[in-house]
Task: inverse folding
């Protein structure tokens, strides 16, 4: 099947290239709020966040930290709102997100990103569906969220539980998606019993996938292709259009190509283009690709 793929270099808080109700599925992983590696990106996208970090240096207040965290989620919510508009009725949104722990000015805090995203998406109109916990096999327990457990790791009560799971949140726009009776596209896209039993259980362990990744993919926290493949096969049919508003290295695009879906990906960081192009250089011949640069 011939499929079409668009990569748009620009900010996905606005997606004017997408018509209303033109996308069947979203598979994505945003920059995780309050994870240090994304601080600069959030400050660049929203000058208010940059100002709040400056304020925190002067006032040292827990309240300012909370405002930074909330502001980051308000920025993400603009993307969720655009995705909601672009999805068809019955379309599914899959959001891979991890919570964050961080000590700022000496006080330790958990930032439960998954619950903030659920709150925002429900306010936008999405229905929350049962979600997946992605158990990371490589994460070792840490003492107080920092280094490895040392001697005192056996003594209660001051150690913290390790965040070794990420969430794959699942949402639906509107009611169940409707198909004509005996629509062949559904039968052509069916999964096997073994796949169904594994994919529709709540805990996924995708062992080893990350070890094959390059330095840059690790730096931008790319998800394994298997994760995108599963979600695409679980929640769309061949010929559908898949959106990733936080494209990174292009994992969703290559997964869409391999599974005979169309795709649209947005990426604000143009320096990732060579990595994206390398990843999709293995594309099936029946995939047509266009790269679009927004007018500045
Ligand atoms: C966690 S990474 C995504 C990794 C991706 N799933 C992969 O497998 O490579 C998040 C990406 O979103 C991009 N990004 C952040 N905010 C954005 C925005 N508002 N619009 C478009 N891209 C954005 C970042 O530059 C980064 O590459």
Result:
């Amino acid at each position: 099947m011939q499929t079409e793929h668009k990569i748009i270099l620009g900010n996905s808080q606005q997606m004017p290239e997408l018509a209303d109700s033109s996308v069947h599925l979203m598979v994505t992983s945003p920059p995780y709020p309050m994870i240090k590696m994304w601080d600069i990106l959030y400050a660049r996208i929203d000058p208010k966040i940059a100002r709040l970090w400056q304020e925190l240096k002067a006032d040292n207040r827990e309240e300012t930290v909370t405002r930074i965290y909330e502001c980051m989620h308000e920025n993400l919510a603009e993307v969720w709102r655009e995705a909601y508009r672009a999805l068809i009725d019955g379309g599914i949104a899959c959001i891979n997100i991890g919570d964050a722990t961080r000590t700022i000015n000496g006080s330790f805090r958990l930032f439960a990103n998954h619950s903030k995203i659920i709150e925002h998406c429900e306010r936008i109109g999405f229905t929350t569906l049962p979600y997946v916990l992605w158990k990371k096999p490589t994460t070792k327990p840490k003492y107080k969220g920092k280094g490895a457990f040392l001697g005192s790791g056996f003594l209660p009560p001051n150690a913290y539980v390790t965040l070794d799971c990420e969430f794959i949140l699942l949402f639906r726009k509107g009611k169940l998606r409707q198909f004509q009776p005996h629509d062949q596209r559904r039968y052509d896209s069916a999964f096997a019993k073994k796949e169904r039993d594994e994919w529709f259980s709540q805990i996924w362990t995708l062992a080893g996938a990350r070890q094959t990744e390059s330095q840059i993919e690790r730096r931008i926290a790319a998800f394994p292709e298997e994760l995108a493949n599963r979600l695409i096969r679980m929640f769309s049919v061949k010929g559908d259009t898949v959106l990733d508003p936080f494209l990174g290295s292009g994992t969703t695009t290559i997964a869409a190509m391999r599974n005979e879906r169309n795709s649209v990906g947005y990426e604000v960081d143009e320096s990732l283009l060579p990595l994206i192009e390398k990843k999709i250089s293995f594309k099936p011949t029946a995939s047509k690709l266009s790269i679009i640069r927004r007018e500045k």
Remarks:
- The chain has a mean pLDDT of 92.
- The pocket of S-adenosylmethionine is lined by residues 11-13, 29-31, 41, 45, 220-223, 246, 248-249, 251, 266-269, 272 (CB under 6 Å).
- The CA atoms of residues 70 and 116 lie 8 Å apart.
- The chain is about 35% helix and 25% strand.
